[in-house]
Amino acid sequence: MTWHSKEKRSTPRLNKFDGLIPFDFKSEPAESNSVYLVNLVSLELTYFCSGILFAAVVKRRVWDYALTVTLLHVIITSLVMMEFPMVWQWWLALGCGLFLMICNGQLIAYFACQNDQTYASFSMYQ
């Protein structure tokens, strides 16, 4: 059994805050790159929490809002970075976040609105 030094157990931290972090797809995808890890974790947490927010606000069709927000994010990212994202790791992370948002939001909306008659009658005809 080996003991690791405190340096190896520390969590990744950013040395400086950059306003382009939500749009940065050019960071080198590596486990040792703290900027990439912070971007990845913040993207996934944002998408997860957005699914909950959409479920609370719209109570139906969370998938529609999730797709719209993701499309807007890709467009804004392309405009801010002046380049279309071609990094497959970024697209994989975005797809996983989108999947999380849709599944999380739809499940919460379904169970929260199960007794709501307007949701039941509306979803039957859609």
From TrEMBL:
Cellular compartments per GO CC: membrane
Bilayer disposition of the protein: Multi-pass membrane protein
InterPro entries: Integral_membrane_SYS1-rel (IPR019185)
Source domain of life: Eukaryota
Alphabetical keyword list: Membrane, Transmembrane, Transmembrane helix
Compartment(s): Membrane
Keyword hit for Transmembrane: yes
Pfam families membership: SYS1
Organism taxonomic ancestry: Eukaryota, Metazoa, Chordata, Craniata, Vertebrata
Transmembrane segments: 36-58, 65-84, 90-113
Protein name: Transmembrane protein 244
Entry keyword annotation includes Membrane: yes
UniProt organism field: Neogobius melanostomus (round goby)
